[in-house]
Amino acid sequence: MWRYGALLPLDPQLDTDARHIVALGEGHTPLLDYSTQATARAGGFRLWFKDEGRQHPGFGGNPTHSFKDRGMAVAVSMARRFGITAMAVPTQGNAGDSLCHYAQAAAIKVAVAMPDNTPDPIIGNVAAAAFRNPDVSLELVSGTIREAGLLLKERYLPEGYFNCATFQEPGWRIEGKKTLGLEIAEALGGQAGEWRLPDVIVYPTGGGTGMLGMWKAFTELEALRLLDSKRPRMISVQSAATAPLVTAIANDASDTVAADAGDTLAYGLNVPGGVGHFAVLEIIRQSGGTAIALSETEIADSTRQTWNDTRWWVCPEGGACIAALPYLLESGHISRGDDVVVVNTGSFEKYLPQVRHLL
Amino acid sequence: MWRYGALLPLDPQLDTDARHIVALGEGHTPLLDYSTQATARAGGFRLWFKDEGRQHPGFGGNPTHSFKDRGMAVAVSMARRFGITAMAVPTQGNAGDSLCHYAQAAAIKVAVAMPDNTPDPIIGNVAAAAFRNPDVSLELVSGTIREAGLLLKERYLPEGYFNCATFQEPGWRIEGKKTLGLEIAEALGGQAGEWRLPDVIVYPTGGGTGMLGMWKAFTELEALRLLDSKRPRMISVQSAATAPLVTAIANDASDTVAADAGDTLAYGLNVPGGVGHFAVLEIIRQSGGTAIALSETEIADSTRQTWNDTRWWVCPEGGACIAALPYLLESGHISRGDDVVVVNTGSFEKYLPQVRHLL
Q: Which of A3, B74, B110, B174 is the most exposed place for a label (fewest CB within 10 A)?
């Protein structure tokens, strides 16, 4: 992803920047053609699957198998540039695994707080690191990312740990997530070196950094006259168990109201309220998009079906996006002939105990 | 697997025994027909894949996704019966993950020592347990199961930890592994309730408990007049990197000589010398079998091919067994018309960082 260095806070082509960059293979993930999917076939639209979860031959690959690596690669590189020696992050799982991985590579101390019901492979990655490296701290909390954030504020931030929580750092993670939008526009532009946006982007939205990152990328590409002002309809997909964005859209509210967290297979979506949700809502409305919630049965069935169809390592959040397609077709947010991009933010391997029976 | 209670040290049908049993779903794994495999097709033999790694619909499933659970379920149940309160095991990985899981369920203290290069998911499972539960200890050593055993002898056994190492406990693990042989004989016998053995069993052999367990099962079935004296040719598959059994067979030796450990994708086979190897050699010879070593390239290619053919979650040790088939056909250990059972001792999910590029 660092080939977009000119649009990032650090550019590997500049000697002064390059030495700070912690690059571990993140980004350059494939945009897979999934137009064979049943709803896409019936609805006559072209479906693309942006697979952030695992390495495909000839592509890069996020080292901790989720889109979180894009943001953390930039955040940790910038931390190094500014001489930060300790970082902390509250997380639903993947962001913590990612920060832990990058911080260790940069020899930065790291504290990760996550819910105690986070899937074993994610807890295991950070626990193994904490076990081997005294500079890694892991805290498990009862609750969600919200309680994790409170614990860090109480115990770690006063010790000088830099807060790397969504929207609470200077925007480095959003800069990294921009590359998701840049890659989609570049891949759809094709061999000719054009840049082209899809008609619809279906994105599983927890905190929403990815949504803001992609949107910022499109704005910058327009400023560079590589794109016009047309934007994709941006669709936020949530779990019915925890759907603050869906509620806000339905109520025409300018921000979400933090609700109680639910219980969902799509752990990354279990974010009861997000600091940047007001901005996500703006993007959704400005783009003519919407927010939609899926039931746990729909999420599980869709994850299973996608795996059976493709053998791609789909995460439940990605499965939720596929499950949203029939509703979006019915509501007119997707039309015949559209290019639709679904973002699969991670890999089922991070959720194995919970999804194994689906596969 | 506890339906074989009458042949196990504890029988769930006896009130006095039942309360000690720690049953977590182990055993009752499927015997999958893989006669479509290229060598089987070309060689005209029937190939069966005993999948110990993951749950298939309608079957049980080893809770830590390896055949080790059969042995540990019995070992921990017996420990509970005898009032043992602390257990320790040196391991190449899977046995430690398994003991950790069962001991926790039985509220028994546990110490696991394993090589520091054990795949992340295995270290992660035990590290996460050690992180959350003060009764779980994890030690990482430089070397193999041998160095792990030395560490436990020095630091944990003097503290009263019961040694659950292969062949160093009273044989409970072998009793559990017997069920592997019982299930194979029962599955091949078919619906009629007959018991039938295959002509060949191809088994990835590290320490060799499974080999002894299956053999003991066949002996007991014969004593019960459910089988005659005919036995399958027992084939030990090893990695060329660490192949003490292959060397012993070639040298006509009665026991293995502990060699330096190698470096193999099939971690479970990286056992330089096994206390019970003399008994494995006896079984191999008595059965008309052999021991065979595969190169790392062959193991990797075969694991990839098996995954591509079947989408079963094959572990490298299982891949090694499939890779052995052409050699066994050529050497006459497999003949046209034979029933051949390959044992897939675990799942690729325990080796993900090492096998992901193969899948």
A: A3
Structure confidence at residue A75 (pLDDT): 98
Per-residue pLDDT tens over the stretch B70-112: 999 999 999 999 999 999 999 999 999 999 999 999 999 999 9
| pLDDT of res. B167 | 87
| Contact list, A349 vs chain B (CB under 8 Å) | 349, 352
Å between B347 CA and nearest CA of chain A: 12
Asked if B120 reaches chain A (Cβ–Cβ under 8 Å), the answer is yes
**How many residues would you count in chain A?**
359
A130/B127 touch (CB, cutoff 8 Å), yes or no: yes
> Do the Cβ atoms of B128 and A132 come within 8 Å?
no
Residue A105, number of CB atoms within 10 A of its CB: 15
- Residues of A within 8 A of B119 (CB-CB) are none
Going edge to edge, which strands form the sheet with A31-33?
A31-33, A46-51, A339-344, A200-204, A233-239, A290-294
Tokens of A102: 């990058």
Q: Which two tokens stand for residue A160?
A: 């000088």
Assess B250–A contact: CB distance below 8 Å, yes or no.
no
Tell me: the pLDDT tens digits for A153-198? Answer: 999 999 999 999 998 999 999 999 999 999 999 999 988 889 999 9
The Cα–Cα gap between A138 and A130 comes to 6
pLDDT of residue A123: 96
Looking at residue A111, its amino acid is A
Residues near B29 by beta carbon (within 8 Å), at least 6 away in sequence: B50, B51, B52, B56, B59, B60, B61, B62, B183
Q: Report the candidate in B340, B265, B260, B262 with the shortest Cα–Cα distance to residue B298.
A: B265
Mutate to test the interface with A, among B123, B304, B348, B358 (most CBs of A within 10 A): B123
> Exposed, middle or buried, A75 (CB in 10 Å: 0-12/13-18/19+)?
buried
**CA atoms of B292 and B321, how far apart (whole Å):** 9
A356 touches chain B (CB under 8 A): yes
Q: Does A225 touch chain B (CB under 8 A)?
A: no
The answer, yes or no, to whether ipTM is higher than 0.90 is no
Q: Which range has the worst mean pLDDT, A236-245, B111-120, B259-268?
A: B259-268
Q: Give the pTM.
A: 0.92
- Record the tokens describing residue B103, joined without a space: 């001991």
Phi-psi region of A65 (alpha: psi -120 to 50; beta: other; left: phi over 0): left
**Residues 6+ positions from A170 with CB-CB distance below 8 Å:** A78
